[in-house]
Amino acid sequence: MNFTNLSERIKQSPPVEFGTVFNNSVELFKKVWLQGFLTLVLTFVSILPFYLLIYLPMIAMGISDPDVFEQQEIPPAFAGLMSLIAPIFSVGAMTVGICLNAAFLRICRKYDLNEMGRDDYFYYFKKQYLIKALILSLIMLGLSLLGVLTCGLGIVYLVVPMSLFPAFFAFDKELTALEIVKAGFALGNKNWLMIFLLVIVAGLVAQLGIILCLVGVFFTAMFSKIPIYFIYKDTVGISMDA
What we know:
Number of helices: 9
Helix content: over 70%
């Protein structure tokens, strides 16, 4: 679906219904809780190299000068290096997160529509998707920085459209990264309050796993992503060739 047709479909889409989306999300979660757990584990493993990228300079500096961290002031060279590495870490982690999140939404479609095929967690780690995810991550980082500059109020607003980006990334392969952003804002602005409530409530429900000796949160955390699938499905519609 091209951006023109998608925009028209968003304009004509029915409003998001909280109860319908939430109930459908609970039912689907019963089928994909294991896939959600595996996605979360793969996310942690995939972003581990980016964490090493941050801590390696600290380790190297500690080895070369064991007393460096006992000083009250951070060495300028170290501060400059960290300010350079931090954005790289953020963009890298966001790129991996988008690809795995999109793969999970694709798996949600498979179990929701009873499709055949294997659970491909690395479906979007192909060159054409990775480049798009990288560009989308850079845009998201820029939007997040702008949100921070508004004393955090912008971040609250951006939660809704940015939460929709992985769905458009997963199911509208014809869109460019910029068109994904435009589509996310178009659908998000039309149903902002209802989507915001769903994101918050689903996020709270996803934390219920903490009750099970903290470990359970790894099995429930991905519940927060499932409402996005149904929001997209109920408004834009799911194509079978995505």
